[in-house]
Amino acid sequence: MNMKVTTALSVMSLMLSGCGTVNTVLRDDLAATRELRKQKTYCQSIPRVYSGVAFDFCLLNAQPDFTGVLVPAVLVDIVASGAVDTILLPYTIYRQSTYGNIGIYWQARRS
């Protein structure tokens, strides 16, 4: 019984750490941009309103490689992020009007 609870909590924490809304709303902007740069996304910036959904779409718009994100997990997270982003809409509208988009400033790889 205790092992099941530990496993469930581990899976939930891994899902939350990959959640787009957690990365963009609950963490600072540098953490979100660092994560997107690590995945080598082509996005230049993401809006703060529905930022979790935008974060996930940016993950899908990254350079394809074998070490990247799991597409089914991102698709499931888009739905969850959309629901949480809707709940947080008043806060993110305020942040959008105050601070603007989250700039990613991805630099192209040098050849």
Automatic annotation (TrEMBL):
Superkingdom, taxonomy of origin: Bacteria
Organism lineage: Bacteria, Pseudomonadati, Pseudomonadota, Gammaproteobacteria, Pseudomonadales
PROSITE patterns referenced in this protein's UniProt entry, alphabetically: PROKAR_LIPOPROTEIN (PS51257)
Keywords: Lipoprotein
Protein name (record): YceK/YidQ family lipoprotein
Keyword check for Lipoprotein: yes
Pfam families: DUF1375
